[in-house]
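pls design
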């Protein structure tokens, strides 16, 4: 019988200042045969220094670091580790932090209310190209696009005729989130919203068809209870 090589382990680097969260996650990683912890930093400065070394497959970044924002680490990782999938791990679920992280280059957004074992599953999903996203984070993204769409007010009557709110939100989520996972920035999606003739896209999403020409990026993660 033919033999198949063992899949390569996921190399994971972490920038996180909360010792309880960091240690709990570290223990679960050590118990996972398909993961290797290749770097561990507790501050912004340490995280930037770590990026000078060999790249990881997944970089987990906390936003509220003691010496600055984890968003700085995300931006630098995009430049120095372009093949790495970057995921935020935080308690910040507000629109400002979500959008700034996405625009900086984060492909996942994990809030810390999940167990470490569940977080590991989500890291696997991110590394394999899946696109899990919390409904809370999805709505933050949609709210951002609604607020920045010049045609949203004028399409309110048309939107009511298209579908009920629950159905419409689902339609918009699929269009916007597909564009995000395919690599569009928030500014590019906002521009697509203005160009699209679809009532849903005009209100809160980007054209899915237009996004297919972009290479797919890694997705978002589901939400977190430790420190930021």
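designed seq:
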């Amino acid at each position: 019988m033919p033999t198949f090589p063992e899949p390569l382990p996921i190399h994971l680097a972490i920038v996180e200042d909360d010792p309880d969260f960091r240690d709990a996650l570290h223990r679960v990683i050590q118990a996972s045969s398909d993961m290797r912890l290749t770097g561990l930093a507790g501050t912004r400065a340490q995280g930037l220094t770590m990026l000078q070394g060999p790249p990881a497959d997944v970089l987990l970044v906390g936003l509220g670091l003691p010496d600055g924002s984890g968003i700085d680490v995300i931006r630098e990782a995009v430049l120095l580790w372009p093949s790495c999938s970057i995921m935020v791990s935080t308690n910040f679920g507000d629109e400002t932090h979500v959008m700034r992280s996405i625009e900086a280059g984060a492909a996942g957004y994990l809030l810390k209310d999940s167990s470490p074992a569940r977080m590991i599953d989500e890291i696997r999903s991110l590394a394999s190209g899946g696109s899990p996203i919390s409904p809370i984070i999805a709505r933050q993204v949609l709210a951002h696009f609604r607020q920045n769409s010049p045609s949203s007010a004028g399409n309110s009557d048309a939107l009511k005729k298209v579908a009920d709110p629950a159905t419409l939100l689902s339609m918009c989520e699929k269009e916007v989130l597909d564009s995000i996972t395919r690599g569009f920035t928030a500014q590019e999606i906002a521009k697509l919203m203005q160009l699209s003739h679809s009532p849903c896209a005009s209100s809160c999403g980007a054209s899915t068809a237009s996004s297919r020409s972009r290479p797919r990026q890694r997705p978002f993660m589901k939400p977190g209870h430790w420190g930021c």
